[in-house]
Amino acid sequence: MSNIHVAGDLAKDSLYSDVTPKDLEWTLASGSSTETQTFYLATNEGHFAFVQMIHSNIGLWNPTIQFTSRFFGGGINTFKSVNMSNFKLSPDRRSATADNMSIVLNPECNKYTVTLKHKELIVSFDFELIDRGFKIGEGKTYFGQDKSTGFVEHKFWPKGNVKGNIIVDGQAFDVTGVGLFVHAIQGMRPHLIASRWNFINFQSDVASLSMCEFETTPHYGSKKVNQGSLVVNDKLVGVSVKNAAQFLETKLDPETKYNIPTKIKYTWEGKSLETDEHFSVSLDIKLEVLMDKIDVLNEVPYFLKKIVQALVAKPYVYQWFNEAEAHVKIGDNEEFIARGKLFSECSFIS
Fold this sequence. Notes:
The protein is built from three helices and 26 strands. By secondary structure, it is mainly beta. The strands form three sheets. Strands 1, 3, 4, 5, 6, 7, 8, 9, 10, 11, 13, 14, 15 and 16 form a 14-stranded antiparallel sheet that branches. Belongs to the SVF1 family.
């Protein structure tokens, strides 16, 4: 009997499920869990930003609440990571506030308002869902033969309209554009789930792509678990699990000893939701613009850092933002090329 139960396998032929209002509630799962809501923004001015709220129970005492944010563009490349307190949920658990930050979902459950006030960073934007969200099956991959060891859960809004502003070190930027929203839960210690993660968000005028892949630790068979989506002309065409992030070329990082990709081939393959036609996407990218290499242990509180170090994990996150071309083929239609901006992220845990 397998000790991992993958969301795509559990869903069988019904990969697509809608994201319901219940899915957007903060669960604050007990035990060793980490819950995040993350907004990835590609602005009309060609800039990139993300804003994330983290609630983590991995520590020994009270939960750790943290915001992380990046802005890249206009000559600025900044990453902020700040610990917060006074975390509170709304009565319906769909909105969260903490010191200096709030993520508020409207009653219709189709628009978030995100605000953040920090001495070096002020964020204010609305993120409104385009078409619909998705999860693969019920959204969860379970660990343990009886599914009791832990789980990973993802819910996506694969494309949304963004309106608002970000002020970085006193300089204001219009972040009007489009983006991706992800609500994720890791219901066990991160180093037990995966040895690495690959994540991308591609936005262009005609097509949007998402991919989230993790490779389980050897204990769970070093299995790659992948889920992705294709949006064309503001419609969710399909979701897929037969996707891949293939490292075509790598280079050793002498500091971390990880083999970091310099060229990646991303592929998606699935069936369209409306017509059941086969679709495929291919995107090759030479990773030329490295935004950052993040030493995760530098960004977590001291006691949590000691716990993670004791678990012999050395997590590093590499992030790139490049222009890219995606080749999209749907059914018998002629292949088309979407040109846009690609945020790609590779995380190495152990």
